[in-house]
């Protein structure tokens, strides 16, 4: 990835779509988030090498409301794991929550998934599907 400008002391904001996964809930929740964090760190380490980065200051994630990842557990796992790497030591994890939206095939309306679930609040149909809200992506990193 080509970086603009002089690298000495300059902070770069990289917009990335390098990690995208559907994740499932279940038992062993802390281990789940820790495994996700290890995967993010692996991806960011690769980006750091490719771009000769010295320090990642912050990482912005987009996390869908129904992604199956618990933000507080993810943040705790991040603090523990990132501090064990030179590249990401003391880096901030910023989580942007993306709303879950469902589409009704019968009445063609969109509605809030978390509030109403699978049943359309407008017509009562079960012919619905999730439009968005299960995303999990690295959006941006700030690095020098």
What are the salient characteristics of this protein?
hypothetical protein PF0899 fold; alpha+beta; single chain; disordered N terminus; 144 residues; 3-stranded antiparallel beta sheet
Characterization of this structure:
With 144 residues, this protein is of the alpha+beta class. 26% of the residues lie in helices and 28% in strands. It has helices at 29-50, 71-82, 113-116, and strands at 12-15, 56-64, 92-98, 101-104, 110-112, 128-132, 136-143. A 4-stranded mixed beta sheet has the order 1-7-2-3, covered by helices on one side. Strands 5-4-6 form a 3-stranded antiparallel beta sheet. Strand 2 (56-64), helix 2 and strand 3 form a beta-alpha-beta unit. The longest helix has 22 residues, at 29-50. The radius of gyration is 18 Å and the shape is elongated. The chain starts with 11 loop residues before the first strand and ends with a strand.
Brief summary:
The chain is of the alpha+beta class and 144 residues long. The protein is 26% helix and 28% strand.
